[in-house]
Specification:
By secondary structure, this protein is mainly alpha-helical. It is built from 8 helices and 5 strands, in the order H-E-E-H-H-E-E-E-H-H-H-H-H. The chain folds into 2 domains: 31-148, 2-Layer Sandwich (Zincin-like), CATH 3.30.2010.10; 155-262. Strands 3-5-4 form a 3-stranded mixed beta sheet, with helices on both faces. Strands 1-2 form a two-stranded antiparallel ribbon.
Length: 277
């Protein structure tokens, strides 16, 4: 009987009465809420706390409340498709994805994003939507130098991505053509070097024998072929140099694009959740 009483007591804690005659289970905490609650009593990360205080003073006029910031490896379990959840907050705790530890710029961008949420939560706005109000505050701190990124429209990002894809394809073809040129040049170089070596050997033998020297036309033909080879080598080197310059330009464009998509507007999260924008 004692055991039965304990079981009933436990049951009373698990179910609540909804007035319909059927006991109903309470709402199951969301995975986000569960992670935040699990971190509630954990100590904040000292370095992240210093960065939070620095950003608060420099870009939020120090108005943000004292918020605990810590790493959490569990955020990657909340990723959806291609979307990666790098941070979240309830206004009292900020969790950052532990995998970001070694990427300083990503840490700063993510923390700044969450600090905008903290500001609105502290002001009584419970929405975590990445709406125009959120975007306005995010842009303000971006223009104030809070985090490294490039603010670009979807059209600008799409246009640059299209150019990068086309340029990468063109460069791959140009490099393949240069590789084929190099193979042909090596073959031609070996042939010309053999020809010159044979002429020099004939000259050496002729110097001892007093006859058999190459004719002027043979010598002129060898010089013409040597000059043509030198021109081909110069043209090849010019192509390689142009490809290297274009590779630098492509890499700069890729870096620029990466900074565009790194702008932490939160819209990828909204799209992953079907909210659109």
């Amino acid at each position: 009987m004692v055991t039965l009483g304990v079981c009933l007591a436990i049951g009373a804690l698990v179910y609540w009465w909804d007035g319909s005659g059927t006991p109903a289970a309470p709402d199951v905490p969301s995975p986000q809420h569960a992670l935040l609650e699990a971190a509630r009593d954990k100590p904040g990360d000292a370095d992240l706390g210093l960065l939070f205080n620095e950003l608060n003073a420099l870009h939020f006029d120090g108005v943000l409340p004292n918020v605990k910031v810590l790493w959490d490896a569990g955020l990657d379990r909340l990723d959806e498709g291609d979307y990666r959840l790098n941070g979240m907050t309830d206004g009292k705790i900020i969790l950052l994805e532990a995998a970001l530890k070694d990427v300083e710029d990503d840490v700063r961008r993510t923390l700044c994003h969450e600090m905008v949420h903290v500001r609105f939560l502290a002001e009584g706005n419970k929405s975590t939507a990445h709406d125009e109000v959120f975007q306005g505050e995010l842009r303000r701190i971006f223009e104030d130098g809070c985090f490294p990124a490039i603010l670009a429209s979807p059209e600008e990002k799409a246009s640059l991505q299209e150019w990068i894809d086309a340029e990468r394809t063109r460069l791959d073809a140009a490099r393949a053509q240069a590789d084929a040129q190099l193979v042909a040049l090596k073959t031609e170089t070996e042939r010309v070097e053999r020809m010159v070596a044979e002429l020099n050997e004939r000259i050496r033998v002729a110097n001892g024998a007093g006859s058999g020297r190459p004719t002027p036309s043979e010598t002129a033909a060898a010089q013409t072929q040597r000059s043509a080879l030198d021109d081909s080598i110069a043209a090849y080197n010019s192509v390689v140099a142009a490809n290297e310059r274009d590779s630098v330009r492509l890499n700069e464009a890729v870096q620029r694009y990466n900074l565009m998509v790194a702008y932490p507007d939160g819209l990828a999260e909204d799209r992953a959740k079907g909210l659109g924008r």
